[in-house]
Specification:
- The chain is an alpha+beta fold and 151 residues long.
- The chain is 33% helix and 26% strand.
- This is ASCH domain-containing protein.
């Protein structure tokens, strides 16, 4: 986690006791657009391929986690809290979940995610399948970072 994200986290909590489970990351291939959808409360869900967690030896998200969302410049823009995590084959993702990702219709969600996962899996010398197991997360927006004042 970079220093700006740490400072934002500490500033948000101040002297209050705060959770220990925290990560900082940016969304997929359009981090600024997706972060803005979170800020506008249009994006309340996200997903990734389980195999990518396994390849990177990353723990799966839990409902105890907070995350700092970064923009493409790795600047913190918001804090979210994971409220639900489930494993779902991609071809069984419900329309309601896809819409909660905030990227358009179910068909648009599917097109975007098939393209993204094909590219990500190709880099790992793996093939995409329609039943690719996804880690589906729902989250709530906790805070939006105020823009820095220009002096």
């Amino acid at each position: 986690m970079n220093e700006a994200a740490k400072a934002y986290w500490e500033s948000y909590w101040g002297d209050r006791e705060h959770p220990a489970s925290l990560s900082a990351w940016m969304f997929g291939d359009t981090p600024d657009k997706l972060a803005q959808l979170v800020i506008e409360r249009k994006k309340t869900a996200t997903c990734s391929a389980l195999i990518l967690y396994e390849l990177e030896n990353e723990p799966l998200p839990t409902t105890e986690e907070y995350s700092i969302i970064l923009n493409s410049k790795e600047e913190p823009v918001a804090i979210i809290k994971t409220i639900d995590v489930s494993l779902v084959p991609m071809n069984e993702v419900k329309e309601e979940f896809a819409l909660a990702e905030g990227e358009g219709s179910y068909e648009e969600w599917k097109e975007i995610h098939v393209r993204y996962f094909k590219q990500a899996l190709k880099k790992a010398n793996l093939s995409f399948t329609k039943d690719l197991l996804l880690v589906c997360e729902r989250f709530k927006l906790i805070d939006v970072r105020k823009p820095l004042e220009v002096i």
